[in-house]
Amino acid sequence: MVIRIFQEDTDNVSTTMLKEDRTNIDILTILGPETLTINAEDEVDMRDPTGTTYFTGIVKSVEAAGEKRIVVEDYGSQLKRIIINEVFQNKKPEEIIEDIINNDTDLTYVSSITSTDTINVYKANKKRAWDVVTEMAELLLANFRTDKNKNFQLEREGDSFSSKSISTSNALLDGKWLEDKEPMVNIATVDGDDRQVFEKEELFNGTGAQTTFTLAEIPIDIRVEHPVGTLLDGFVEGQSTGDYKLDDREIKQITFSSAPASGTNNIKVTYTASIPISVRRRSKASRDTYGDYPKVFKKRYIKTRTEARAYADFIIGRFANPLLSSRWIITTNTDVDDFEQYVPNEVINVNDTLRSISGDFIIRKVERQYPGNLKITVGTPENDITAFNKESLIRIKQLEEKDDNSTIINDSETLEENLLITTTDTVTDITSKAPADGFVLDYSPNNQLDKSKKLDGGTVTVLYP
Question: Which domain holds residue 329?
Answer without folding.
Answer: 161-181+322-383
